[in-house]
Amino acid sequence: MVTPRGRRPGKRDTRAEILDAARQAFRAEGYDRATIRSVARRAAVDPSLVHHYFGDKAGLFVAAMDLARDPRQVAEQLSREGGPKGVGLVLAFLAIWEGPRSTGEPGSAFVAMVQAASTAPEVATALREFLSERVWRPEGGEPAWAPALVSSQLAGIGWARYIMRVEPIASATPEEVAAFVGPTIDRYIAGAVPDDGMQTSE
Fold first, then answer.
1. Is 146 in contact with 136 (CB distance < 8 Å)?
2. Are residues 81 and 52 in the same domain?
3. pTM
4. Which residues of the chain have pLDDT under 50?
């Protein structure tokens, strides 16, 4: 079967069809195994059209999961700025879920993502692979545990704020949440965990 080239005729919403195909691909194949070509085959379009709309695979996943911003862009921006990163990281991630580019109720995209990951193991796998590739990576002397700890802290904020509606986290301003949680994230990044990554008692 020859993959069609360029735009398909008619008034189809090609971008929406690519997104639907991407969601199917990420559910069925996971983030690592899904490719631009496999998504293009599902959508019956040329791979160049997927690149045209979404850039790379990470950009496609961001759009398919209804994220407003690629998490790595947040980490890279904070790295360029230097200094403590915790407060800025929390503010940036809260902006992803409830900023001006989000749709519906604040945090609705986070809730939808958790629901999808909870009901479909493949979605959870795709999300985990995406976060492990795109969220914070150690820089120089930063501990190997830092990305997992930072990701767990951010996921916990989302769970408490948008799903369980735990007060005062649920109604606090992003700045208030960042002020409390940011220093903890800075400790993770700085390596304030046991040297072997585990604390055991004798």
1. yes
2. no
3. 0.67
4. 1-4, 6-11, 197, 199-202
